[in-house]
Amino acid sequence: MPMLGIKKLHILIIKQFALLFVGTFFISLFVLMMQFVWQYVDTLIGKGLTLDILAQFFFYMALMMVPQALPLAILLSSLISFGNLGESSELTAIKAAGISLMQTLRPLAIIVVGIACLSFYFQNNIGPQSKKKIGQLLISMKQKSPELEIPEGIFYDGIPDCNIYVQKKDLKTGMLYGIMIYRMTDSYEDAAIVLADSGMLQSTAEKKHLLLNLYSGEWFENMRSSTMGDQAQVPYRRETFWHKSIVIDFDGDFNLADANVFGQNAQAKSLNQIRDDIDSLNHTYDSIGRAYFNEAMNYTFKIQNVTKADSLRALSVARNKQYEFDSIYQHLPPNKQRSAVNSALSKANQHMTELDFKSMLTSDGDLYLRQHKLEAINKFVQALSCIIFFFIGAPLGAIIRKGGLGIPIIVSVIVFIIFYILDNTGYRMAKGGMWAIWFGKGLATAVLAPTAAFITYKANNDSAVFNLDSYINVAMRILGMRRKRTVMGKEVIINDPDYTRDTLELGRISEEVTRYSREHNLKSPPNIIKVFFKYQPDHEIERISEELENVIEDLSNTRDRIVLGLLGHYPVVSEKAHTRPFEHRWLNIAAAILVPIGAFLYIRMWIFRLRLLKDLRTIKKTNEKIAARIEEKGLAKKQETDTLFI
Fold first, then answer.
1. Counting CB atoms within 10 angstroms of each CB, which of 118, 198, 263, 620 has the fewest?
2. How many whole angstroms separate alpha carbon 233 and alpha carbon 513?
3. Integer distance in angstroms from the first to the last C-alpha of the chain?
4. At CA 206, angle to CA 200 and CA 212, rounded to 5?
5. Which one, of 66, 88, 230, 202, lies nearest residue 134 by Cα?
């Protein structure tokens, strides 16, 4: 029966997770697709693309986005699933039945591992083909001439060799008004500018040309000149017309580009292809490197291969200082000087050009290799992120215990943004060569994997890792903030306070407070040596605070409202913050060595000393007021009389 119950429980959780996973997967896929479409909206709009071309584009785009949508869908669905179980107290009932969280996660973990394998299959087989098809369609769309949707008020360069400006257009008739056309060619000498009051642009029936009819305008054009030389004049032509027709080449059909263009793209290759190409690239660029090295060595050998007579002559000249280069250069005629400088500059520029070309070739090879290695690692990282996101989402849902689409979506978006920033930053740094490839591509995994392990451990042990009050208390202690003491009157009092004993205790506490303030001189800054290196234990304030709390607890049984109000004036004393930063000596020494941290702790300690001085003065005044109130009302004498009477 227990095993049967566990199986039924697993089936229930799997059904709930599966329904949410399917819904969140399509939502995540849609969001990622819209982000991708937004990047290429200018390529898609105004091209006159048919529905079958758009359908192919969105289909291959969806296949390409599947590995990215799977981790986000797993994170969101697991978070909502276990958030619903926690919110409806079903998770509490499961744990009460002796089933731990890890046992509850086990069947879903197996399913998520299967989804991770599916993600790897998509990236290794379907994804590269989809990437190739998407790239092929995008280039074909960019090469396709746009439809004649000329905007108003801006220059439109969608028509080949033309920039058209239209001031206003009539959508009903298709007439264009205030037309300015710049006809651009390979040479500025035959460029033309056309101005027209109105016109109409139409496509021919075979969609191979555009017919532009212009009305009431002028044509300005430079004519080609056959004269050579600096003083050549470019002929100029100006024409005024009432009506003019211009025919422009225009290919309105969609022509699919060659898919072999993307054969060298690392994202369009499987893992085996990447491995083979990396071996080929290493072999090719190693050969190029050896050739450059041999060339450099041969050049060095030629420079060093001077005759012995030249070497001896140069050594003799250097020793005897018979001549210097500057003096020889100054004695040369001006034309020889200019020739020598030009020759030296020409050789230097030639060598620099060769080095720049070699550097560009080798750097391109390094970039090409890094792209292939990054893409190979990315296939594993994307699949592993499915498992990591599951062990973040499911435990978080069990801890937060909030279902629905509110908090889970916020948490999922935050986690995904952190993953995206780390992964994208690491990818760019590794691609640029600033970071190692394994470090850049593994950065997001190295950060989120320990986080997932920590959250899973805390959720399995029912730790209040997301208890907001505990974090508020820690922040308040660090910043020195505290809450005001509140003492409420009791409706039922079993034992009345011992006013006589409490009055004596308050008087003694006042004396101890005064003595402590005088001996420790709390106004002065703390001694750095004693605080960080030679700390002596000081538990006096702890003892005084404990005694004061006992008196306050006893007096809280009073029926006198004024005494109750005065009890609320006692501050909540910080017992240790004014003495040392940490309990352990080595932590204090480490804080002193780390100057910024030590400076912060030292200033904080000084602030706590001043606050303690103020608190001790408040305690002394409050003690005096409570003692005066007890004496004024004769509460102690009345209590003694009642005791004797009894």
1. 263
2. 103
3. 67
4. 20
5. 66
